[in-house]
Amino acid sequence: MEAPRRFVVQLHDATTLHFDFRLQSGGVLRSWAVPKGPSLDPATRRLAVPVDDHALAAGEFEGMHEAQSRCTGVVIIWYE
């Protein structure tokens, strides 16, 4: 039986505060930055900018990126 796919929404306070949406596909997390965050109204559209795929472990990371030259700042996993 195949493991269930998953998605993660992370609040990322880097250069600007934004949300990262990650969807598991083929052993990686396909990723998009969503500057205005998700909307509860299905009629409201949001810009989603594709970014580099991430390892599955990125879906578990919560905390502060300190030693990296980019993607710095606090990451919080957002749960419903």
Q: In brief, what are we looking at here?
A:
With 80 residues, the chain is an all-beta fold. 0% of the residues lie in helices and 49% in strands.
Question: Numbering strands along the chain, what is their spatial order in the largest sheet?
Answer: 4-3-2-1-6-5
Given as residue ranges, the uncertain stretches (5+ residues, pLDDT < 50) are none
Q: Outline, from the CA principal axes?
A: globular
Main sheet specs: 6 strands, antiparallel
First-to-last CA distance: 27 Å
Rg, rounded, reads 13 Å
List the topology elements.
Blueprint: E1 7-13, E2 17-25, E3 28-34, E4 49-55, E5 63-65, E6 73-78
Antiparallel strand pairs: 1-2, 1-6, 2-3, 3-4, 5-6
